[in-house]
Structure formats: C-alpha cells, structure tokens
Amino acid sequence: TKDWNGIDKVVLRNPGGASARVSLHGGQVTSWRNEQGEELLFTSSKAIFKPPKAVRGGIPICFPQFGYCGSLEQHGFARNKIWTIDENPPPLSPSDSHGKSFIDLLLKPSEEDLKCWPHSFEFRLRVSLAADGSLMLISRVRNVNGKPFSFSFAYHTYLSVSDISEVRIEGLETLDYLDNICQKERFTEQGDAITFEAEVDRVYLSTPNVVAVLDHERKRTYVIRKEGLPDVVVWNPWEKKSKSLVDFGDDEYKQMLCVDGAAIEKPVTLKPGEEWTGRQELSVVPSTFCSEHLDLQSNG
Ligand code: BG6
Question: What is the rounded average pLDDT of the residues 98-115?
C-alpha cells in the first residue's frame, strides 16, 4: 500500500481484527488498533507525513542517539530515513514466535549518514502482531564495521490516553531518573505511582522489565514488557511546550503520553561483528486486571 505522500507502508492484521501499520519512513509504527478497531497510539492532527521530519506520533525509533546527547540531530537520523523491506527475512525463532504476522525492515547507513556518523551498521527492525493483538518490536543492530561503536536508543512510544490527568504509571516508583528539564540532574522518585500535572521529560534508570500505564477513564492498562532496554523515558510536553511544537496541537498533550523502552544512560557498545537486540512488547489489559499480576519487580 502507498502512504499519503507515496511512501510505502505495511499493514499487519491478525485473525481477530487487530492491526498495526508500519511506515518505511522512519521504520515507524504509525497505528496500532485493537480488535474493536480502537486506535491505541497517539498521532497528532498536525503531524507532518514527509521526510525529513519524523511523524509526531506512533513509535519513532531514536537511533543512534537519544535527544541531544551527541553530535547528531535530536534523536538521531533513523526516524527520518526511508527503510527497506526485507523480502526474505530470517524465520521467527522460538523466542520470537510471538505473532504470525510480521515484517522486517532494514536500515543501512547512506554515504551521507557515514559522513556525520562514520560507523557501518545494519539495523533490522521486526514488527509483529500476535494473535491476542499485542505488538512486538524487535530491533537488532549489527556492527559491520572494522571498529567498535556506541549508540543510544529509544522506542519513542506515543500512547493514546483519555485524559493525562487520569493516567498513572506503575513500575517506576523509587527509581532514579535524569530530568531533561533540569540540565539532566539526577533525582529519586518517591514511593507513589507517577501521575501528571505539569511537563515531564525524564529518563528513569535501571527500570523493571515490565511497566504499566493505567488509564482510569478508559478502564484500560497498557503493559510494556521489554528486554535489553534498561531505561524508560517518560515525556509529556504539557501546555507551554505544546505551543512551541509546530506539528502538535495546543491541547493534544492531554491525549498522549510517551513511555519508551530505551538504552540511554549507558550507551550500547558493539565490537566488530557483534549484534545487540532490544525488544519492546505492548499489550492492553482491562484496568480491572490487578497490577499485582504483572511482574513489575524483575529488573531489566
Ligand atoms: C523527548 C525528549 O523524549 O522527546 C524531549 O526528551 C523532546 O526533550 C521530545 O522534546 C520530542 O522530541 P522531538 O524531536 O520529536 O520533538
């Protein structure tokens, strides 16, 4: 299928009717719907669907740099590139056989990319949709260079929420975080679940493998399970910052929350020939499901 501006996109569907849409622009998941057809990811009504700008919403891939913590553009170049489809992907391994419906996208550096980041890599992104509608993203980055290189990474996941004031995150209590609003100063979270009443732009460190985002009004809980991604970014621009973002509506901060599985504080280093894998699985359970059922304690 063709996207709005002629860029290819791929739609995955499961037998129950859940779906996910992946754009070759950025290798970005731009839609994820449950069996009732409800959209679970936020996309701004002002999003610009044209490179070189990443689409405001869905799940942009931040690679090989998160934020401005290096010499590259904010969040690195991967989200602004046109990825290719691997027509002949390796089969699902038993540990990945999470869904029957999957697509592999590839990104390799162009001559231009090598000028600003001189490291040859191959990035394979597998997006798969399970029979139960959960969405799995598996990123594999291989060093095909003669020298080691390091990178940071995030799945910048824009969750759609009913009203940010009704949302809380469980699983990040008592953890240390770097605050991007205060010059990356380090703080420690209090014991309560995280709620929102102002701009939040944080990187939580050494987080558990499972984090839950509870949307009280919609009676819906997003469960984020991850591997190889020790950090969690939490971002909501709130009122003032929203107005400064050209591709974001003034009031849209109420309907979204970014919660990203990430590797930021300690960049990943790959020696020649080595490969790194980072997985993030998103699923939805009704809020009546007690969060004690989730193993929020195991460290990732
Ligand atoms: C967050 C950063 O994760 O992403 C913020 O910490 C940034 O500082 C936000 O504003 C959105 O970034 P961008 O480049 O997509 O506007």
Answer: 89
Q: Looking at residue 295, what is its pLDDT? A: 57
Distances (CA, A) of 243 to 42, 209, 257, 285: 17, 34, 16, 33
Q: Please report where in the chains the tokens 């740099």 appear, as a residue.
A: 65
For atom 3 of ligand 1, the residue with the nearest CA is: 235
- Enumerate the domain spans of the chain: 9-293
Q: What is the pairing mode between strands 149-155 and 256-270?
A: antiparallel
* Whole-number pLDDT of residue 300: 46
Q: How many angstroms separate the alpha carbon of residue 74 from the centre of ligand 1?
A: 8
CATH of segment(s) 9-293: 2.70.98.10
Q: How far is CA 45 from CA 7, 145, 251, in A?
A: 19, 41, 11
Q: How far does residue 87's CA lie from ligand 1's centre (Å)?
A: 33
Beta bridge partners of 126: 104, 138
CB 122 within 8 A of CB 34: no
Report the pLDDT averaged over residues 120-126: 98
ipTM of the complex: 0.97
